[in-house]
Amino acid sequence: MNRRIALTVGAAVCSLLVIAACGVLLGVHPATMLASCAGAFGSYYAVGETLVKSCPLLLLALAVIIAFRAGAWNIGGEGQLIVGAVAALCVAQALPEGPLAAILGLMAGAAAGAIWAGIAAALRVTRNAPEVLTTILLNFVAEHFLGFLINGPLQEGSGKYPESEAVAPLSWLMTLSSTRLHVGVVLAVVLAGAMHYFLFYSAAGLRIRAVGLNPRAARYVGIPVDRSIFGAMLASGALAGLAGSVELLGVTHRLFERFGGGLGYSGIAVALLAFLQPLAAIPSAIFFAGLARAAGELQRTAGISSAVALLGQGVAVLVALTLSAPRFSSLRVAKAPASRPVPHLGESS
Amino acid sequence: MIYQEPRLPILKSWPNANRRNNRMTDPLLELRDIRKSFGGFEALRSASLALRPGRVTALVGENGAGKTTLMRIAAGLLAADGGEIAADKKRMRSWSVREAATFGVRMVEQHFTLASQLSLAENLVLHSLRVPALISKRSILDLATEMVARGGLPLDGLDRPVAEISIAEKAKMELIKATSSQPRVLIMDEPTSVLGPRELTEIEALLHKIKAEGRSVVIITHKLPEVFRLADDVAVMRAGEVIFQDEIKNVSLESIARMMSETTAVFRPFTHRQPEMVCAMKGVRTTAGVPLKSVNLQIGQGEIIGVVGAAGNGQSELAALLRGLLPFSGTVTLNGRNMTPETLFGSRRVRHIPADRIGEGLFGELSIMENLALGVESISRSSAYEQAVRVIAAFSIRARSAWQPVNTLSGGNQQKVLVARELLRRPELLVAAEPTRGLDLESASLIRKAVTDIAERGTGVLLIASDLEEVISCADRIHVLYRGVISEGFAPDQQQEIVQQIAGGR
Lengths: 349, 506
Fold this sequence. Notes:
The structure holds 2 protein chains of 2 kinds. By secondary structure, chain A is mainly alpha-helical. Chain A has helices at about 1-25, 30-40, 45-70, 75-95, 100-125, 130-150, 185-200, 205-215, 215-220, 225-250, 265-275, 280-300, 310-325. Chain A starts with a helix and ends in a 25-residue tail after the last helix. Chain B has a 6-stranded mixed beta sheet, with helices on both faces. Chain B has a 6-stranded mixed beta sheet with strand order 16-17-18-13-19-20, sandwiched between helices.
């Protein structure tokens, strides 16, 4: 456990060093770069913004965690997030404005995400179609579906911009005083705690993990493997859909092209850096959100592309996964590795 | 000459006679006092075997006697822990795959290593050493045809993909791959288990040719009639030692059967009561894997019913069927109720100890506590911990704590966790497959006791194992499974009949 924390922190530091090195190579003074960190954590407002940004990341990471733990590789967070946001918008606009519209909007988002993931799950369980592929392909479908909606039936009144009408302000998620910090953040943290409890303190969670680790053995203990995977995929889709509806009702208030913006994929990075631990996903999500905020600041002040945030993400995950992998595991046939910190990727039959 | 500790009367007269007969033939390859352990399990104690040119040696013995291990060492596929290997009377310093191949030892293993997307010709050419840099369909076919001719087994249709050919043809492919390089020592592991009578005749012809060329062959087999048909010499292995080697003309089928299974087993006191029926299978057939053909079995309360036979004759299918993982026709009843695969799967009163401990039994990354908790419907974390502590004490599992992942335990302790999990709530039916395979004596006897104890308390046990001795020592009735067909029940003392059934007699 402590080893993992050390690894995670080490990986995060490595990614910062790589970004700093890039900055130096591009001729940016280190002080400027330090100052950009203030953009992420420097003020009450900045911290609020970072937390707001980390909220969908955390929910998406939880989505990845529950699915990966069950041995289902849900790469479709992006698509599930989009359909969740669409559903939330439709429901919130159809209902009289007020907190009820927000609550039902969130629920509709979760339901839509679950259905979207359910398509892939059903294909996996009934036709044995690899969910890695189907979920990715459904991402494209969702993106183009969104494009159609905001240029067609859901386009704003004037018909000029490729975006939807905004949700009425009374249906927005409640925010904390002067920041954009909304209740969705609290919801995400509570869900992280709940998932930790579910996975590690409940018999059902144990069964889900068992299915992910060894589906053949799970069958012999009498666990319905297909049903468990299906359930985990639905829960995963619901969380991703919830991320979309929280983002819509709490931050953007409207749909637009590239609503997902790669959040779904960043969620996978967050989950992997957290070694699929729900509670560790909280700091992991905040780290990535801060990285993105600081990168944005760097772009404004020093003219470095904010894509360095993606670079940092990549470095962190690669470092964490490489260092934690059992060394030369494929060469050591006789002895099983003492512990395998990362639930193995692949090998699911 | 090879032979140690003459435990059997038949040995007393043969060494001299043997030496007289075969003075002129020095062994091509000689293995002396080979030792090999896997973990704590001693697979080979001190095994010696001499292979003479122009002779076919049949290597027989029960499952787990060490036949395949010894031959893998001979072929350089496994490194021995101790002992000597002499090739052409020269003592070899090291014996790796490379050295064995250079000398000319080739082994045909039981599993197939064919690329199913490629054609037969392409598969053969993959194994040839002399492939030109540029190839065409035509040249590949020519090369393959030449290899088949050199191999000495007829095979047509070399342009067919492997996916389309029968199992018998696949087995022939493996043989051709090995024989086309004209090895000086050819080792075949159970070559006839999937071959029909026609292929057997072809192999017979091949053996004649090899013998005439002064090369040597080893056939690992369970089937005694074949030994007498194909072999010149026979070597019997038991418990990691070659206990007997002689010319085939000096022995009888019965004496070999007796040597293979000589046992000191103590029979379980047989109870002559009519127990309540727990599980009955009538005319059960399956189609997947090794198809089961009409299985009839009855397991009563407190009974231990043994199913023996060489692995791969339908054992795993029988276990999977009772877990509800295989569709079947016929009737399976549990406590008088008709069962379907779905109801069998849902039944918490049928528990399984799968043969493949880590692959099908345990979750290596999970802790002892978590593995045990999976054996019960629902449990809180604190009672799961208490349960684990109790089990660790009761089964004397050597572990640092209840939180230790099971893949860090030794094989014996892993198996104790598995058995304990399945016995947590007394099941009505326990299907135990190879529950003590590869374990040290202490763990094995502890597990055997746990299984007999649970039977004493009324559980019906189906014990599926390849170790005849173990089954005989604790089962009430014993069936033999051979190629998906299950025999009638034998009493534990009908050992001769059982051994004959295992070897495919009748």
